[in-house]
Design goal:
CATH superfamily of the largest domain: Ribosomal Protein L25, Chain P
């Protein structure tokens, strides 16, 4: 089951590049929250350390509770969200922007969940080579039921065998 992480967020005023640079100079990143039930996008500022900590423990499909710090001009009172996209610096790989998708606890959401392969395939002992085509799979699930990972037993695989997405329960 997915653990809900509380992430403090602040209001971001302005959309221009200069505003984003100032935010990053303070050790924070610009972010945006959007969703099907939201009339307007909410411009946010967030500490990337909070996001990195949540991802390290539970992957990018982690459930986030965005908690406003201070008053928001648009009346934002917080939201339950998932990470929709993270933009990273191509050299340092640090997060430079985050997109959050607001979700409802009653409505299923599509998320990518990591696959964890367990066991040593029989085919390796016969000289075969193990090749992973995908290391995550998209699933449609209620937010509170998002798994941290899906375990896939590969110990029965022989040379030439494969596992398809439909074989993963």
């Amino acid at each position: 089951m997915t653990t809900e992480y509380v992430v403090p967020v602040e209001q971001r005023l302005g959309r221009k590049k200069g505003v984003a640079r100032k935010i990053r100079a303070q050790g924070k990143i610009p972010a945006i929250l959007y969703g099907p039930d939201r009339d307007r996008n909410v411009m946010l500022t967030v500490n990337p350390k909070d996001i990195v900590e949540a991802i390290k423990k539970h992957g990018e499909s982690v459930l986030l509770r965005l908690e406003p710090q201070g008053r928001f001009d648009n009346g934002f009172l917080g939201a339950l969200a998932i990470i929709k996209e993270l933009q990273r610096d191509p050299i340092t790989y640090r997060i430079i922007h985050a997109d959050f998708l607001e979700i409802s606890e009653e409505r299923a959401v599509e998320v990518d969940v990591a696959l964890r392969f367990v066991g040593k395939p029989k085919g390796l002992r016969s000289g075969g080579v193990l090749h992973y085509v995908k290391e995550e799979i998209a699933i449609n699930v209620l937010p509170r039921q998002i798994p941290d990972f899906i375990e896939v037993d590969i110990s029965h695989l022989d040379i030439g065998d494969d596992i398809k997405a439909k074989d993963i329960a």
